[in-house]
Amino acid sequence: MPARHSASTHVLTESRATSLRSSLLSWYVEHKRDLPWRLPAASFPEVDDTSASGDDAFSRGYDAYIDRVYRCLISETMLQQTQVATVVAYYNKWLTLFPTLGSLAGAGSDSVMSAWAGLGYYSRATRLQKAAAYLDGEFVSGRKQLPEDPAFWAKHVPGVGPYTAGAILSIALDIPVPLVDGNVSRVASRILAIHGDVTTPKSPGASAVWAFAKEVVTAGGGRSAGDVNQSLMELGATVCTPVGPACERCPVSGDCSAYRGRVRHTKSGGKSADKAQAFFSKRRAPSKVAEPITQDTDLSDIEDLCTICPTHIDPDVLPPGKSSTDYIALYYPFKVERKKAREEVADVLVCVREGDGKVLLEKKGGGVGGGLLAGLWDFPTVLRTTETPAIPTDLHAHTAGQTVHLFTHIRRTSIVHVTTSADADGDRVVWGCGGGEREWADLRVDKSEIGVAVSELCLRNWRCAAAFIDGDMKLSQTSGKKRAPTATPAARAHKKQKPSGQSTLKF
User: Fold this and answer.
1) Angle, CA of 82, 88 and 485, to the nearest 5°
2) Phi, psi (5° rounding) for residue 463?
3) Is the pTM of this model over 0.70?
4) pLDDT tens profile 344-370
């Protein structure tokens, strides 16, 4: 049984926070990545001059103030669930299309979704535009100062939670407000040696991490708040990584409890136990916050005992076959078992119009996929259930194959069917349509030239259909647009393996 420890083990003292802050800032200035959204913080302009020149100075200052907040809002929204390397191009393109907060607030939803297409998690685009509209209507139109309370942002601004609120206030406006993302959670769990759950919202472990972040960002009077917060995230992204952390390059390894544990294992050669191996084979969070207090515990210390770290695993014990180099990644942070993705099967109809080869799309609203793909254009789709109607035989659809697409908590297998239509308006095709807007679109061109915002799922299903259709895509003349490649060697191989009874379509 591992020794119980005090809750104060996971509390950052003021002096320790000040030391960490100083080391992080020095390291960040020298090693931070050059990213387009990393700009100096702004502040609300205070101009005492009431003359015309004073008004001009206020306007310039206010525009810069709002622009800084807007750019931070864009980058932080895009960076949710998306890698930095992917976001850079989208961020630059977004600012070209919607250069100001007001321009985004007044933009059409189709243009917003089109600009977002390819980033995934499309509800972020809708919430981003709603946030812009709220801020523009409530504050910018009246040249008012934005609230500096993170609770206000999390409660009133669409799409903004505690993390994004902290990011905007600290990074854009240099207000000493903490933030916690996956990188900060990992760094904090290792510095404070928290081997309990730090990811479940409002859990004791998550609360300890937020307290850590607050201590660090407010230390030293809270100056350079944005750089302090970004240094924590940068450290987690580039040095204190989930697997194989580069402790030898870490600026705060000397004050990291997990690193000290790794050094201790290196010197001792490490211990192992069957109990540890059993634990790691399941790697579950305990059903309770902590095990009952053992009888050999000093009862006078009960109130100060840690309620975060599970007592059925000893960080001083390594599982068999593991070395000291594995120690930090194994124990810090604790990996909570996630809920398995729900399985879905859907029938998808790719209807190709005779004459120009365009395909029928519909705009997703509240029907199938509405919550996941709302505002985007996609093929008519029906989720399979015990009551799902079969595709009508009069559509003469051929099964082209299937694709698999992962949403956040859903794994969808799409069975792709292909048919043709001479109906210019697509009225003959009603199967799978949710009654929304319809559009004939050419998906053979570059994505930027399609003209409507389509999802990655739509393009994946189109590639499956295109591989099934004749390798040369024998369609009638198009409008003269340059065609994108329609079938890779792998796709053509797939086409040759069609089940018996399915014929190649000719257009």
Assistant:
1) 85
2) -65, -35
3) yes
4) 999 999 999 988 889 999 888 754 445
